[in-house]
Specification:
Helix content: 25-40%
Number of helices: 5
Shape: globular
Radius of gyration: 14 Å
Oligomer: single chain
Order of helices and strands: EHHEHEHEEH
């Protein structure tokens, strides 16, 4: 097992900072990546930050995390959280621990956001703390 943590981000997260900042905050994905990289260095971990708007790419990255022996995956599936059985099955098919993160608290939002297909097969979920959801997840991966 390596010390690499894959941080996999789903659709529309490339728009962080400008997309509904009252819900998702003003931090960009690059800001979050810089925070995680610095934190990872302090923890002795290498952060591999990725984002795609395409479901198949996210699945390929989960498979890659398994193939290269990543220590863990931090996954923000975005809108695929509530819709993608394929992404759920990809998480379930790997032995690398996956921590689901969300900037907002989906349970405090629209009804359709209350069910996470992905979260049911993850090691755990951290949600509702803005960008800090990611840093809390990275702390958790260091302890796995």
């Amino acid at each position: 097992m390596s010390d690499t943590i894959f941080v996999v981000n789903g659709p529309n997260l490339n728009l962080l900072g400008s997309r509904e900042p009252d819900i998702y905050g003003r931090d960009t994905l690059d800001d979050i990546g810089a925070m995680l990289t610095a934190q990872g260095e302090r923890l002795g971990l290498t952060v591999d930050m990725r984002q795609s708007n395409h479901e198949g790419q996210l699945i390929d990255w989960l498979h890659e995390a398994q193939a290269v022996g990543a220590k863990a995956v931090i996954l923000n599936p975005g809108g695929f959280t509530h819709t993608s059985v394929a992404l759920r099955d990809a998480v379930a098919s790997i032995t690398v621990p996956v921590i689901e993160v969300h900037l907002s608290n989906p349970e405090a939002r629209e009804d359709f956001r209350h069910k996470s297909f992905v979260g049911a097969v993850c090691k755990g979920s951290i949600r509702g703390f803005g960008a800090m959801s990611y840093t809390l997840a990275l702390d958790a991966t260091a302890r796995l």
